[in-house]
Structure formats: structure tokens, C-alpha cells
Amino acid sequence: MAFNMTPFLPKNCYFLIFNREEIMFGRVYYLTAFIWSALLLIPSAFLNLLLLRSLYLSLALRKPSTLLLYSLSVSDLLIAIVLLPIYLTKKVAELTYNVELFCFIGKHSYFFGYLFSASSLFTVTALSIDRYLIIHKGVHYAEYVTRTKVTITVVSIWVISIFLSSLQFVIPTNGVSTLAGFVTAICFFVTVVFYYKMLLKLRKTKMEASQQSESATEISSIPRYRKVTRTIMILFMVFIFCYLPYFCTKIVMSIIGDAKKGVESTECVVTVLTYTRAFINPVILLCRTSEMKEAATFIMKRIIPC
Q1: Distance between the two ends of the chain, CA-based, in angstroms?
Q2: For the chain, percent helix, then strand, then coil, each to nearest 5?
Q3: How does DSSP assign 103-141, residue by residue?
Q4: Is a pLDDT exceeding 60 seen at residue 10?
Q5: In this structure, are residues 125 and 153 in contact, taking their beta carbons and an 8 Å threshold?
Q6: Distance (Å, rounded) from C-alpha 176 to C-alpha 179?
Q7: What is the DSSP letter of 96?
Q8: Is residue 306 part of a domain?
Q9: How large is the greatest C-alpha to C-alpha distance in the chain, in angstroms?
Q10: What pTM does this model have?
Q11: Where is the G-protein coupled receptors family 1 profile domain (predicted)?
């Protein structure tokens, strides 16, 4: 490879690239990524802590499926308090040309990056399936979705995410990127299919309720279901929006190679974009879910008394 690299990186860091010439060339991009990450850290941590506390305080949300929201928020919180500090340290190592620190911290950066990304993706997909079951099964929903089943689902999500994120240590980087793209495509397909089925079911329920003169309560609940359904879809689209530039960059890197000047600089910026969802997700949930909004308002009034 035609890199101006510091030689003899440890063997277990074989998938990391330390290219001094690239860092010098794209120094502005590296600094941008550093500043962007630093600005995200505290707001993301605060918002996700606020969301977790709101979930705990809201009596209306004390149901099995809320565990999925806990899982999503915990994943975003860990991005803020674990991954972002690691990523900032990695940028410092690159900007100061500290190869040893880069090698040590870089492994953790990629591992936790894939871990929290996979857990978020699987959780949002599981939420879309849960919404479908609520709408499709109606009063029988509780028979299909129990706390035990949801707990097993959440644990499985994290175990599978840990396994997938560990694969980067045993298979080539291109293989990891291909696998990540394949898994994301499957989750995207599943989410879109269930979202479409939910909309059809809501439309059918509304028409049947109107024709059969069902109770006003049943008809009035349809907009609420529709709003929750759209919220889950928005969360998924945020994930796709944040990750699409990263995947595109990885595809370009696999085609033209890592040595092309500017490629690594671009990757460091689009990587931070993937972390931005840790800030966006809690904002969406707190703004679009009335129970969470009320609980968050109550908490903020106690923190900042008027």
C-alpha cells in the first residue's frame, strides 16, 4: 500500500490506518470532527438522562414494550458518555501523531461504534414490530407481548450486537462493512413492510369504525396510534440519514482504496454524523410523546425552579 504510515503497528490493529500525510492534508476535517464530537457530548448525555428519567416517572409508559425505549436511550447515552470520549481521544492521537495511543484507543472506538449502532438499529426495528402488534392484535396484544418476552428480546439484541461488533477483529474491514450494509438493508426492509402494514390496518380500522358506528373512544385512538407509528418511523429514518453518508464512504473506500487522498478525512466527518443520532433521538421522543414531554417538563421545573 502506498501510505506514508508509521510502520510496525501491532498485529491486532491491522484494520486501523494511521496515515500521517492524510492527517496533515485533512487537518481541518479532523479538527471539525473533534469540535463536533465535543459539542455533542454534554447535550446528548443530558437529554438521554432526561429521557430515561422521564420513562421511569411516566406511569402511562410502565408497560413491557417500554423496555425497548430504555434500550434505545441507554444505547444513545453510552454513545455520549463512552464512545464520544473515546473518539475524541482518537482524534487527539491522530492530530498529535501518537501512533501507540491511536492503536490502543482506535480498537475501542470501532468496537463501541459498531456495538451501539447495531443495538440502536435492532431496537428501532423491534419497536416497529411492536407497534404493528399493538395495532394488529388490539386487546389481545398483552397475550403476545409480555415483559419476559421483551426482556429476552432486549438481551438478545445486545448479545447479537456484541457478537457482530467483535467480528471486525477476525474478518477484513471490507467484510465488516458489507455485513453492516446487509444487516441494515434487512432491518430497513422489515421496518418499511411493518410500517406499511400498520398504515393499512389503521386505515381499515378507521373505515370499519365509522361504518359500524363504533364508540368515539375507539375512533379517537386512531390518530394517537398513527402519531406513535410515525414517531418510530422518524427514528428509523434518522438512523438511515445519519448512517447513509458513512456507508457510502465505506463503499467508495472499498472501490478506490484507502490510500486516495481525502478519503480518510471524509470518513472522520461522516463518522461523527452517525453519533449525532444520540442527540436527535431523545429530542424526537421528548417532543412527540406527550407522556414523556409531561414528565420531562416536571423534571426540568424541579431542576430549574421558576
Answers
A1: 62
A2: 85, 0, 15
A3: HHHHHHHHHHHHHHHHHHHHHHHHHHHHHHHHHHHGGGH
A4: no
A5: no
A6: 5
A7: T
A8: no
A9: 76
A10: 0.86
A11: 47-285
Answer for the pair 70, 78: CB distance below 8 angstroms, yes or no: no
The tens digit of pLDDT for each residue in 239-279 reads 999 988 988 888 887 777 665 677 788 888 999 999 999 99
Q: How many other CB atoms are there within 10 angstroms of residue 24's CB atom?
A: 12
The count of domains in the chain is 1
Q: φ and ψ at 19, to 5 degrees?
A: -120, 100
Residue 301 located in a structural domain: no
- Provide the pLDDT for residue 213: 53
Alpha helix (H) residue ranges in 212-303: 216-256, 263-275, 277-288, 290-303
Q: Which three cell numbers stand for residue 227?
A: 402519531
Cell, residue 239 = 438512523
The helix (run of H) or strand (run of E) holding residue 289 is: none
Three-class DSSP category at 19: strand
Measured between alpha carbons, how far is 115 from 99 in angstroms, rounded to an integer?
Answer: 24
Closest CA to 18 of 4, 32, 30, 29: 4
Q: What are the Cα distances from residue 87, in Å, to 82, 107, 204?
A: 9, 10, 48
* Residue bearing cell 436527535: 280
Please give the grid coordinates belonging to residue 179: 455485513
pLDDT at 186: 93
If one counts every other C-beta atom within 10 angstroms of the C-beta of residue 171, the result is: 12
What CATH number should be reported for the domain holding residue 197? 1.20.1070.10
Taking the C-alpha atoms of residue 131 and residue 233, their distance in angstroms, rounded to an integer, is 10
Q: What nine digits make up the cell of 134?
A: 399493538
If you average pLDDT over residues 204-224, what whole number do you get? 58
Has residue 7 been placed in a domain?
Answer: no
Output the nine-digit C-alpha cell for 299: 423534571
Indicate the pLDDT class of residue 112, thresholds 50, 70 and 90: very high
